[in-house]
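Summary of Year 1 activities. Much of the first year was spent building the evaluation harness for sequence design. The harness presents a backbone, in tokenized form, and records the residue chosen at every position. We chose the following record to illustrate the format because it has been used consistently in internal testing since the harness was completed.
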């Protein structure tokens, strides 16, 4: 995820322009927040894959991808 991705997502969710304007106003905090959220999600996904591997010795990458995608299911 890069700065442009963060700005695009901020616009998609309707954050006010001051949160992501082209002059860098407030983007530092928004970018830092986005990176913290992404890091937390990566760690949660890694833990889900680790747990899958602990439970099923023959788990494969597709199984791990399924578990990760299920995390976002309603």
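For this record, the design step produced the sequence shown next.
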């Amino acid at each position: 995820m890069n700065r442009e991705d963060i700005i695009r997502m901020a616009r998609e969710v309707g954050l006010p322009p001051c949160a992501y304007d082209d002059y860098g106003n407030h983007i530092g905090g928004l970018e830092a927040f986005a990176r913290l959220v992404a890091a937390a999600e990566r760690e949660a996904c890694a833990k889900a894959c680790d747990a899958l591997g602990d439970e099923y010795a023959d788990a494969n990458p597709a199984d791990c991808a399924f578990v990760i995608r299920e995390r976002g299911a309603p």
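The mean pLDDT is 83. Quantitative recovery figures across the full test set are reported in Table 2.
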